[in-house]
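DM from R.C. (forwarded with permission)

"hey, sorry to bug you on a friday — could you get me a structure for this? deadline for the figure draft is monday and I only need the backbone to look sensible"
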Amino acid sequence: MNKTLIVSIFISTLILSACNNDNSNPSEPLASNWSLPEDKFPLGEKILIENRQKIDLAQGVEQYKIIRGYSSLQDGFEAEIGLATNDTEFAKFETAIIKLGYSAKKVIPADNSQAGKNTSYWVRIDSRFTSKTTADDIVKLLKKDGFNEARTRYTAEDGLTTTGPWVINILAVRPSFTGKLRSALGTDIIPGKETTTSLAKRTGALAAINAGFFVVNETMGTPGDLAGLGIINGRIVSEGVEGRPAMFFDIENGQRHTHLETNLSTIINITTQQGITKRADGFNRTPGKNFNCGNPFDIETSLALHDVVCTDPNEIIVFTQDFGSKTDIGTGVEVLLNEQGVVQKINLTRGLDLPKGYSSIQATGNNVDWIIKNIQLGHTLKVNTRLVNQDTQKDLNINEQTYAVNGGPTLLMNGVFPSGKQIIQEGWGYDNIVGVPTTYNNANRAYFINDWYLRRNPHAIVGKTQDGTLLFVTVDGRAPRYSAGLSVPETAQLMKFLGAVDAMKLDGGGSTMMTINGIPQNLPSDAVGEREDGDAILIFK
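My reply, with the result:
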């Protein structure tokens, strides 16, 4: 359904169809046949010991804690020198290392043909240590000798054969659950971050899990800005990354409805009083910086590229109450709108107070002239926003009970693993994209993909089973001897094993956190403790 709304109405409610308010609960609970598989988890050899614990949290909500495998002395710590993409590069590493009294070896990553051809491999000192300190000391010496990419690696995290262990938390929310499920912003506004545990405690949630990717610091954009689609109470608070997925949580006909949408596009058009239309670039963020790229007007590429900042000096950004009481400051022009979408002020710099119910439109670069030429005080502006699934070519209907979180890559869709084309489209390919700065060359990109996609890391995942049971899963990682983590292909296999038909990876790494009754269930992998995130998924009794 196309939606044409006066911008302030769009901002405050985004009611696109008749619906109940957010306090309503699903009616006529459905039956659920889902159960935790009796077979052992597909991690390591089947003979590994596995401990399971089930905790009933509420009617229709269960937590499962799984500890599988053990820490083997076959795993240990190694000093890594760098990444080679061919034997010539390896020979250079080897020659230099021999001069220092060491021998070098190749560590070949697990197969990942999904993300494109991978000819790269890790180069390491040919020694394994039980003590991390020993490997750290060698890494320090290597760095002094000019090996700037030297680092310590724990072999159980390589994505290759290991005995684990793995620490897994599963939160199952059945269709019979009559409570509420929604996403929420950290600190309740875009410019700000908050730990999942703090957000859960502050809102009184029964359970919570961290949600999607977000901007970490100002070099990437607005800290706390969601790096992908975000919908809260039917309000689009952040535009999507072109081509990426999002998980939607709706209430339809009194029933909870969860659906995974892939290859999304957010189309935002501003129409002036004279009927002139201009496409805007996004919502509630610093103009000019697009974390994870995926904006059709970015200079470097219009494609998604994970953990890369793309740029565009000519942007139009809509600011809503979800950004808070002050808009982003900088050069450009800004138009202030009241609740009816009527222009109250045209400011020749960016940065205004945003009274309750008001919104604004900022422009930079060559869009400044367009604003000045086509918009005047007292004019009424309209915003037309469409969410389009480019795979199905269908517009998505949303209402005030719609919530959505970003993530990626897609792990399962209709029970099928995604194609290599889709993985690359979502931003996880090996090859450098034409036009992207040389700082993201093939060698660096391969290093990143090997580490992010094929090595084992902490993960948070959301999935849905055939009967509508929602599965929220966390796997601890980067915790040697405690939990090995998973590679991205292993997360897909895990969700398939659990019975998910649709599944998407949420933000992982140091963001990974599940909270139950205000108590963290995961071991944070960041040295400083639990990470402050951009948003989280909350479950209320």
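R.C.: lifesaver. The helical segments are 7-12, 87-99, 132-144, 196-203, 367-374, 420-425, 442-454, 488-498.
me: no worries. The chain is about 15% helix and 35% strand.
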